[in-house]
Structure formats: C-alpha cells, structure tokens
Automatic annotation (TrEMBL):
Component of the acetyl coenzyme A carboxylase (ACC) complex. Biotin carboxylase (BC) catalyzes the carboxylation of biotin on its carrier protein (BCCP) and then the CO(2) group is transferred by the transcarboxylase to acetyl-CoA to form malonyl-CoA. It is found in: Cytoplasm. It comes from Hymenobacter crusticola. A zinc finger (C4-type) spans 29-51. The lineage of its organism: Bacteria, Pseudomonadati, Bacteroidota, Cytophagia, Cytophagales. Residues 25-294 form the CoA carboxyltransferase N-terminal domain. This is Acetyl-coenzyme A carboxylase carboxyl transferase subunit beta.
Length: 299
C-alpha cells in the first residue's frame, strides 16, 4: 500500500482562488519549456538560450535591435485606414480599427523609418503581427510604397521585415491592389540600383509572400519562421496528401531555393551591416580612359 493516496480526483481550487503568476518577470520557451528571466530573454534578443527558438517580436523591438542607439525618424507615422467598403463582420471595421489602435498603440500593421545601422543609412519597413494579424490593407501598402520611394529618392538601401497573415479581408480588393503597387515600386527601386533586402519572420504568408516579401535582392529569414502562401491545412485538403516534415519552415524554404540565407537574430545587425556595405549603391564610376598602345596599331 502506498504511503500517500489521493482522496479526491483532480485539482479542486476554484478559478477565482487560483494565484496568478505576475506577468513580465519570467519567460517560458514555448518549444523546450525552458524558463528564463525576462531580462535575460531580452538580452538574448528574445531568443531561447537552450533551443534558439525565436520569439515573435514587434516593430519597436526590431527598431531597437537594428538602429544605432534606437534613433530613427518614423515616416508617415499618422496614416490610418478608411472604410471604403463599409465592412462589418462581428464588428464594424472602423470600430475594430479604433479598438486595435487603442490596444496596440499602433496606427496600422506596419511602421516605416529612416535611421542608421552601424553608421550606414537604412530605410526599414517593419510589420506588426498584433495589429489584425499583420494583415496588408491600403495603409500597409501605401506606407511601404512611400518608404520605397523615400529610399529611391535618397538612394538609401531598403529593408522590409515581413510578418503577416496575408491580405486584410475587411478591405478585400483594395488589399489585393497593394501587391501590385508595392511590387511596381520595388521594380523602380531596382531600376535605380538601390538595394532591397527582404527579411521574412514568423509568420510570412498570403499576399505578402506573393508580393514584396519574395522580391528582395536578398531574401533572408529568421530560423524556424513559417513561410508560405496558403496554410498547411488548406494545402493538405486540396492535394489530399500528407505534407513533408518541416513543410513551410524557413529551413525547408531555404533548401528548396527560395531564400538566400537564414540569420540568427543575435547576428542580424552585423550581417545586415556586412550585406549593405557589399551592396551599397556606388556613384557612377568615371569611364576609364583607354589608350591604345603604339605597338598594337601597327597594321
Ligand atoms: Zn527553447
């Protein structure tokens, strides 16, 4: 006979008497369940010390990681969305926007900024997943298009950090038009010879993958990021087959030739600095004077 016997089954503490652990002190990795202090988690740029799981972060954290001394000028900071379709789902779209803006302290799902990375000028557009799933509506498209124009006019390299569930259904066709607009602006940037680096983070899907996210001179990604167009469940149901292991992970996408490299967030700033130095638009070199030697003009 055991020395301890459970008399009642299960946990019987009523919900209202349960003690909550205060938020913001500890971080538990969702992959390997390792616990670390928030301070340590932040010091490792929100990656796990044990399994290197990259936690999802927002534009504020990326700007802090990338820009020297967290100094930058935000572009088009006050642009907000209209409601051209008078869209209503469980809430009217303007109400949903207002509630999300209040909750996230963001105006829409992307922020664009000009700053310096290791002393090199850089324009960054970074998406925020917590704003309606990082969905691409008119404001996201327009802000990215304007940031690309700004980069082209000032001849500054452009970095896009994507994190999106795809098109914003509340803007339907207007959302889809952003794919064409941003892609056309990137074509102009390319023609002007200004570098474009696209970084895909967890998750990058839908219309974002199908437009600007895959158009970089370099397409790079964070480890383990989900990258795809349609989600795995939809694909599985459509093709009626099981999907290969690791399908749509950054590593799988790299292996199949759609990415140039995967970058650990702790090396991101240095690797971007190296890449930008290598790609930096140079002044048009003066034509090299060719002098024909006398001996070759003999005939
Ligand atoms: Zn972990």
């Amino acid at each position: 006979m055991s020395w301890f016997k459970r008399v009642e089954k299960g946990i019987v503490t009523p919900t209202e008497e349960k003690k909550e652990t205060p938020d913001g002190l500890w971080y538990k990795c969702p992959e390997c369940k390792t616990v670390a202090t928030m301070a340590e988690h932040k010091r490792l740029l929100y990656t796990c010390a044990k399994c290197n799981h990259h936690d999802r972060i927002d534009s504020a954290e990326y700007f802090e990681i990338l820009f020297d001394n967290d100094q930058f000028v935000e572009l088009d900071a006050d642009m907000t969305s209209a409601d051209p379709l008078h869209f209503v789902d469980t809430k009217a779209y303007p109400q949903r926007l207002a509630a999300t803006q209040k909750q996230t302290q963001l105006k829409d799902a992307v922020r664009t900024a000009h700053g310096q990375l290791e002393g090199l000028d850089l324009v960054v557009a970074c998406m925020d997943f917590k704003f309606i799933g990082g969905s691409m509506g008119s404001v996201v498209g327009e802000k990215i298009a304007r940031a690309i124009d700004y980069a082209r006019q000032h001849r500054i390299p452009f970095l896009m950090i994507s994190k999106s569930g795809g098109a914003r259904m509340m803007e339907a066709g207007y959302s889809l038009m952003q794919m064409a607009k941003t892609s056309a602006k990137l074509a102009l940037l390319s023609e002007a010879g200004v570098p474009y680096i696209s970084m895909l983070t967890d998750p990058t899907t839908g219309g974002v993958t199908a437009s600007f996210a895959m158009l970089g001179d370099f397409n790079i990604a964070e480890p383990g990021a989900l990258i795809g167009f349609a989600g795995p469940r939809v694909i599985k149901e459509t093709i009626g087959k099981d999907l290969p292991k690791g399908f749509q992970s950054a590593e799988f996408v790299l292996e199949h030739g759609f990415l140039d490299f995967i970058v650990d967030r702790k090396q991101l700033k240095q690797q971007l600095a190296d890449l930008i130095t290598m790609l930096r638009p140079t002044e048009v070199a003066a034509p090299v004077a060719t002098t024909r030697s006398k001996s070759s003009a003999r005939s």
